[in-house]
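Re: folding output
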Amino acid sequence: MFIFIPISFGVVIGFRIISKKVFRETRKSISSLNGFLAENISGMLTTQLFNQQKRKLDEFDNKIGLDKLGCIHVNDSKNNIGSKKDRHANIGYGTIGFDNLINIIYNERLEGIPRILETPYVTKDDNSKDKVYPPYKYEIEMIRNKEFDGNLINKIRS
C-alpha cells in the first residue's frame, strides 16, 4: 500500500508540470486574441492604418473569422488612434476620414454584413452643445454617392 504513495506523488507532480505549461500557453493565446480584439473593436486601427485595410482584415479573418463579424458600426472618430476613447464624429469630420470609411463600407469582403450608422446629432451652431439635428439622411446620401460634402453641417443646420 505504501508503494502507491510515491507513485501517486510522482503522477501529481507530473500532472502539475504539464498543466502549468498548457495553462500558460492557453493564457498567452487568449491574451493575444483579447489584445487583437481590443485594438480592432472600434475599427479605428483598421481604418486609420492607411492602405493596410487588407492586411488587418486578413489578420481579423485568421484570428477570429470574418464569418463571425455580425455588424459594422460606422462612425468617424473625434480622437486619434491609441487614445482608448470611442468619441464619435460625423462622417468625414473626424480623424478616420471619409475615404477610409468608404473603403471599409464598400469592401467586397464585408459584403452582406449589416452596417449601423452611429454618428452624433449636429448642434445648433458651432458654440452650442445642444445636439438637435439628425444627420443620418445627409450622411447616407454622402455614403451612397461616395462623395464627401464639406458643407454638410451647414446644410443640416439650414
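--- second protein (sequence, then structure) ---
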Amino acid sequence: MNPHGILDGSGNRFNVPQQIIDVENRVRLCDMNENLAMDLASIREQLKGSFPDLMGIQFLEASPGRVTASLVARPDLCTVGNILHGGAIMAFADTLGAVATAVNLTTGSTTTIESKTNFLKAVPVNSRILGECTPLHRGSRTMVWQTRITFDDGKLIALVIQTQLIIG
C-alpha cells in the first residue's frame, strides 16, 4: 500500500498514485520548488465516491505551488435562500488545501488542524466558483495554505487560511 496521501477525518487514506511519487518515474515531489503537476485524472480517481466528488469539485491544476478547482453552486449545496451554504465553501477550500499538501508530501499523510474563513460575498444558486490554493508555509510537520474563492470574473467571495498536519 502506498504510504502517501490524504487522510480524512475518519482515518481513511486517499492515496497519491505510485507513479506520482516514484522517483524513477516522471515526477519527483522531494523538491518542493519544482513546478510539477500532479495528474488530475489520478486525483479524480482517488476522490471518486468521496465527499469532494459528491460536492462536484472539478480540479483544474495541481502542482506543489498551486492547486486550482471549480465548483458549481447546485441547489442541493445551497441554503433555503438559494445561496451556496458557507459550509460548502469551507469544504471546497479544505479539499484544495488537503490536495495541495498531498502533492507536496514525500512521506506520510495529512489532516486539517485549523481553518479560518472570511466570507465576503454570497454565491447565488447555479453560479460557478473558482478556488486557488497557494502555500504560506511548507514545513516538515505542518503546511499552511491560503485559498482564494472567486467568481469567474475574479471578484473575491471568501478567503480561507488553513493549517495541515503532516502525519507519519
